[in-house]
Amino acid sequence: MATEVTDYCSKHTNGIPTSMQDVWRWTVKSFKDADKMSSPLQGAWMVFLAEDRQAKRILEIGSYSGYSALAWYEGTKRTKADIILLELSPEMIAATRRTLDTYNLDDRVTLIEGPAQDSIATLTGTFEIVFVDANKDGYLGYVKAILDQNLLAPNGVIVCDNAPPPPPPTVFARGMTISTSANPELDNSVRPYWTECGKALQKFNEYVVNDPRVDVVMLPVFDGVSMIKLKMDASNYTGKSADGLGEGSANGSCNGGRVHANGATNGSGNAANGNMDAANGTAEGQGTASAVRQN
């Protein structure tokens, strides 16, 4: 059923640009863990979000192959937004730079290499969109630092991607955020990894919903997306986090994974008619990441 729903939504969504289709297909062919990449449908949503919010500055934590950076770039052609990417993995840094160079994105996109927590500490100003799609045990620390440093614009939104899987349908770290028994069909070879991701996201979700500075809505789309904004009276809470929560990253071994793509297994943009009907390649496997990544 999940595949049919995704296909139906894709057929009734404006297609992604050819450049994004090309990066998506290249990533699928080049990386065994390409199911961590955003799907074509999610890419279309990101372009839509950036256009709708008229963002002038965007921060992305975890760039993977640069597909989502290209989505932000496409969605901010009118506002000419500055886009900052944070990435740790040498492999993904190289992949992202390939995308930036191929599509001449360097005029507005800056890639900062190194641990995201350290990079965030160097940032100034505010961002209308902050996209977090990195190692799941880092989410709590990243979002807390963004709020503590007042990096989120008053009208800004933090979007936390909780990782879309291939069918069967599960949400939130392959279902492991909900319960360790939520996805009995999850391959045992990756179950320990996703279990730790689920634990980390549970801690993060509890933190953010109890932080008095923000409002949050968690949506069961893709594999779970949390959208976080400042409360209207957030000035009363500047620098204050939820009691007893938010000190550093969640413990555990969920370190490697940009877990991104409701269908890096099924679906791709169809340039001919502007819809996203055809699957041109399938991502193989959900394998655990071999190195600690921001994506």
Verbal overview:
This protein is an alpha/beta fold. The chain is 32% helix and 15% strand. Strands 3-2-1-4-5-7-6 form a seven-stranded mixed β-sheet, sandwiched between helices. α3 packs parallel to α4 (67-75). The chain is globular.
Short description:
This protein is α/β, with parallel strands linked by helices.
- Helix share bin: 25-40%
By secondary-structure content and strand pairing, the structural class works out as alpha/beta
Question: Ranges with pLDDT <50 over ≥5 residues?
Answer: 163-176, 243-295
Helical segment count: 8
Strand order of the largest sheet: 3-2-1-4-5-7-6
Strand content: 5-15%
* Count of distinct strands: 7
Distance between the termini: 28 Å
Mean pLDDT: 78
The Rg value, from CA coordinates, equals 18 Å
Order of helices and strands: HHHEHEHEHEHEHEE
Shape: globular
Q: Describe the largest sheet.
A: 7 strands, mixed
Give the topology.
Layout lengths: L1 H10 L6 H13 L9 H14 L3 E5 L5 H9 L6 E6 L2 H13 L6 E5 L2 H6 L5 E6 L6 H10 L3 E10 L29 H20 L3 E6 L5 E6 L65
Parallel strand pairs: 1-2, 1-4, 2-3, 4-5
Antiparallel strand pairs: 5-7, 6-7
Helix pairs in contact: 3-4
Keywords:
single chain; 8 helices; 7 strands; alpha/beta; 7-stranded mixed beta sheet
